[in-house]
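so im writing up the methods section and need the Deoxyribodipyrimidine photo-lyase record in one place, dumping it here so i stop losing it
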Amino acid sequence: MAGKVTIFWFRRDLRIDDNVGLYKALHGKYPVLPIFIFDTNILSELPEDDARVTFIYDTLQKIRTELQEHGSSLALYHGTPTAIFERLASEFDVQNVVTNHDYEPYAKHREAEISEVLKKKNIGFYTFKDQVIYEKDEIVKDDGTPYVVYTPYMKKWKAKFKQEGTPKIYYTSQVLDNLIEHSRLPNLTLADINFKRSTITVPEFDVTPTTIQEYQEKRNFPFKDATSRLGPHLRFGTVSIRKMIKKALAEKNETFWQELIWREFFMQILWHFPATVANAFRKKYDRIPWRNNKKEFEMWKEGKTGYPLVDAGMRQLNATGYMHNRVRMLVASFLCKHLLIDWRWGEAYFAEKLLDYELSSNVGNWQWAAGSGVDAAPYFRIFNPTTQIEKFDKNRKYIKQWIPEYGSDAYPDEMVAHKAARERALNTYKKAIN
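--- predicted struct ---
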């Protein structure tokens, strides 16, 4: 057995404790070689100062340091996963590769390729559920078909959870002595992967009892900034979903709990309906003749529409990589309905900018705004960007925070009149889908 190893492949699970795949690997018979691959297939699409890459890099360095305290380390690689696994198989006597499930279309394709590479080398490949409580078809209707409406899905989710009880926490600290004894495994700099440090940082998450208890009362008001900031940490797995669910239950906050269930609802939708990444779930909505005016799209991106709450949201996004959830709904509705610009354009821009970008939730929410998705807002529901201010930013604190020229001649006029844009959207949608 000397020299034989099991590889644990970190991906969307960037933590040591309560990491199911890592826990399972450490309980195996061979020492564990932990690795992370900066996948060039993904990185090639990103700007060189992408804040998420900086966050991932810094998190990996912390994991390396922690593992080095146990006489081991974390090996970092840069390239295509298939090429990296070919290299690993030549450098180590690899017996097994262990990782956690990922549900996005590219990840599934990548796993299929890796599985073939490893199979030819007689290397075992094992994956585990880690980033959700329930996955794939674990919550389906009685006839086995997927839910496409949130409320019945949520009720079934809760019933199953109540029946099965609080999920197990996988403590790895007792088994870290089964890591490979090698504290100088390959490392990389940001420059090695053709990136540079971003000026935007991912904020720490806040799931204190106070935040959870006040979540329902404060979450709709963008100036209060009372959200948990959990998004990026769940996206990259720096926190455990099992621990977050336990916190929500401890504070008995249904709203916070249900937001975590929304995440799983969209993830199972993407798993069952991968075509929704590029196509409307309700197929007739692909008949909408989008105007797709590039100049207007730029004005929306830059926060220069003349509608203050829309503009404040876009400027917050551009400056910080974050936008308050209530404002996200408004800016998405404005793009699709007021400007009649394809939801896919907006989805792609959010993908580029959001620190908490999650393909399933982003596609799901953009299709909701466009009226084309599962459990979507009806096409005739069109937010009024002005009355939304009275509801959610009455004192203009959020607006003034992000639009210093608000109230002056320097602030642009409304790029389109609400009433005319609403009528245009209603007529366009009605003709296309009826």
